[in-house]
Specification:
- This protein has helices at residues 27-38, 51-86, 88-94, 101-107, 112-118, 121-130, 370-376, and strands at 138-142, 152-156, 178-184, 187-192, 203-207, 212-215, 224-230, 240-246, 253-260, 267-274, 285-287, 290-293, 300-304, 309-313, 327-333, 336-341, 349-355, 362-369, 396-401, 410-415, 418-423, 429-434, 446-449.
- With 456 residues, it is an alpha+beta fold.
- A hairpin with an 8-residue loop joins β19 (396-401) and β20.
- α1 packs parallel to α2 (51-86) and α2 crosses α3.
- It is globular, with a radius of gyration of 33 Å.
Length: 456
Amino acid sequence: MGKLLLQQSFFISFFPSTLLICFLRTKEAYLYLPYILFSPFKATHPSPPTLSQTTAIYMQSTSKRLRMRSLEQSSTQESSAHIIASSSDLLSEFLLLRLPIKSLLKFKSVSKRWLSLITDPHFSRRKNHINPTPAASALFLRRPSPVANPLFTFIPLDPSQTTPPFTSLTFTDHPRGIEILQSSNGLFCCSSIEYNDSYNLKYYIYNPTTKHFTTLPPLSGGVVLGINLAFDPSESHVYKVVCVQRCESSYDHVLIHIYSSETGPWRASGGPFPAPASMDFSGGVYWNGAIHWVSPREASLYFDLSEETVREMLMPSLPDGFDEREIRYFGDSLGHLHLGEIYKDFTSQLNVYEMERDRSGWFLKFRVDLNGVAVVFPDLMEGYLEENDYYHYSFSILCVVRGEKEEDSFLVLHIPGKIIRYNFNSKRYQEICDTDCPLTFDRSYAFQYIESLSIV
């Protein structure tokens, strides 16, 4: 080709292939360089090709290289996919554990092998470890019903929750149906319905996500005052059930029995102890390793499950002139224990307290001005309540939901005909849905629904 004098040059890189273009002094050299770089027959051509020949050779060569690379990548991907698919550990680690629970439930029908992997207890524990304490994605409201098989109203808190897992509990056949007593991190504690025969109640632990349940052993002894479920998948795959029964030999004393999913039968924990007459043992909340019970007039208590001891729980100070607590909410969310109170002289002000992690006391976390809610939703001031009544505002607190970010935390309220949410940070209200579920001031008729693969 003779000696070429390079006056200027620059380089441009293209992905997936790299093309080196040198702008040389002569047109012939510019045409010939791609030919030298890409033509497999360059040694047999003594003279430079034309522009059309150069373009054709370059396009053919590039197309061939791209096809070869695509085949190599496809082969590599197929090989990688085959390796992952053929290894249970890799399939779980790189695919199944990364999928949402709703998808996993569908993929159980892919094959017997996938079913075995997804329902394996070790897999559910790994899944819980990745996201151990998610916030509630929905609520179930227990509807008062004089007939058998009571119905539940499904309240979605997450846009992805569009279909209720159930409207009534039919996982076991019982003449009068099944009701929910408590919820704890994805599991429900349920009981059969027996009118005028509390001694023959049957108790169940039910996972509404997987539809699996277990029947608890029969209880003997005194009247059951409360059944409380304790489950924290971030700490253990084992759940416990705490039963408080009235002591048969002393009416003002109670006994605690514990059932463990690991060890099985009910067993007594400690001896009888005096209990406040106003204590609601059926509304206990499991948080931070203990079951907590609140009393409106006397000392509130908590039962530490690791030490199996009952201790008094500190409570916020009462406003001046009040000798009884006006508790409107008591529950937990994302590892936080909350207490909601409202008093007659401050009917427009709802205080939401949070317990210190070491149980050294409560601090005011949120304050809600109900006057603002009434402006947006006038139904909050329905006339069936007296103007000077403590319940001048007709509402019920269903749940305090904490977000991963503080600004995402909100309050769920039930007002006549509607379920609404109030964002603590923005102070904005949003209607979730209409409901014909009767309004009640009972603190234990809303149950958190959290998707879970936990084994029962």
